[in-house]
Amino acid sequence: MTALVVLAVLLLVIVVPLALAGTALYNGLVRKRGAVDNAWAQTDVQLKRRHDLIPNLVETVKGYATHERQTLDAVVAARSQALTAQGPQQQAAAEGMLSGALKGLLALAEAYPDLKASQNFSELQAELSTTENRIAYSRQYYNDAVLTYNNAIQTVPANLVAGVAGFTAREYFQAPDEERGPVQVRF
C-alpha cells in the first residue's frame, strides 16, 4: 500500500506540473498564432482599402489622359494580380508590381496639368498616400507578430509543444527586391 501511495505522490508531483506547463506553453503559442492572424487581417484590410482606391484613380486619370491606355492597363492588371495573391510572399510581390504601376500612373500628372490641378485627383492621391503609410505600419506590425511567434515555436521548451501540436513558422511580408534598392533622384 505504501508503494502505491509513493507512486501516486510521484505522479502528482511530476505529471501534474508537466501537464500544466505544457498547457501553458500551448496556450501561449495559440495566442501568438492568433496575434499573427490578426496582424495579417489588419494588413489585408489596408491592402483592400488601397485596391478599392485604384478604380477611382484610374477613372479620374482616364478623363484627362485618354492616350495613356498602356499605363492604365498596367495598373488594372497589377491590381487584379494583387487581389488574387495568396500568402505574404506572393502578396508582397504583387503589391510591389502594383506600386510600380501606380508610380507610373501618378507620374502622368506631370504630363497633364489639368489632371494635376483636379481636386478629385489630388484627394485620391492624398488618400492613396495615407493608405500607403497605413500599409507600411500594418506590414511592420505583422512582421513583429511573426517574429515573436516564430521565435516562440523555435525555442526550448515551447518547440517541443509546437512540434507535437503542429505549429509551423510563418512567412514575413517583405518588400520585393526592386523596392529595397536606393531611390534614385534625377534633376
UniProtKB/TrEMBL annotation:
Coiled-coil-forming residues are none
The answer to keyword Transmembrane applying to this record is yes
Location of this chain's protein in the cell: Membrane
- SUPFAM superfamilies noted in UniProt: LemA-like
Q: Which UniProt keywords apply?
A: Membrane, Transmembrane, Transmembrane helix
Q: Determine if Glycoprotein is one of this entry's keywords.
A: no
What the entry lists under Gene3D superfamilies is as follows: LemA-like domain
Give the membrane topology.
Single-pass membrane protein
Q: Which GO terms describe its cellular component?
A: membrane
Give the matching Pfam families.
LemA
Q: Which family does it belong to?
A: Belongs to the LemA family.
Name of the protein described by the UniProt record:
LemA family protein
Organism of origin: Peterkaempfera bronchialis
Top-level taxonomy: Bacteria, Bacillati, Actinomycetota, Actinomycetes, Kitasatosporales
